[in-house]
């Protein structure tokens, strides 16, 4: 497969995982739980992130890891965070009040 296609797949995965992280943050706010709940969600998120990277790498590139795969995934997550996440939080805070 082409490098551009693989880059877009991992970038999309990063955006998707950014959305999942926002959902976890919304859970934290709505349930207003203690530090243990936050720790459990964070550990679960990072296991999910790692497992997703591993499985997509196996499916797309037969397990041949390239650093730019991981970087493009992080870039996708950061792009989501900078471009869309604030809008989601503003919308959520208006609904929550």
Describe it for me?
- The chain has helices at 3-31, 35-61, 67-96.
- It contains three helices and no strands.
- It has one domain.
- The chain is 89% helix and 0% strand.
- The termini are far apart.
- With 97 residues, the chain is an all-alpha fold.
Write the topology of this structure.
Layout: H1 3-31, H2 35-61, H3 67-96
Helix pairs in contact: 1-2, 1-3
**Rg (CA only):** 15 Å
Q: Helicity range of the residues?
A: over 70%
Integer tally of domains: 1
Low-pLDDT regions = none
- The overall average pLDDT, rounded, is 85
What share of residues are in beta strands? Answer: under 5%
Give a quick set of tags describing it.
single chain; 97 residues; mainly alpha
Short description:
This protein is an all-alpha fold and 97 residues long. The chain has helices at residues 3-31, 35-61, 67-96.
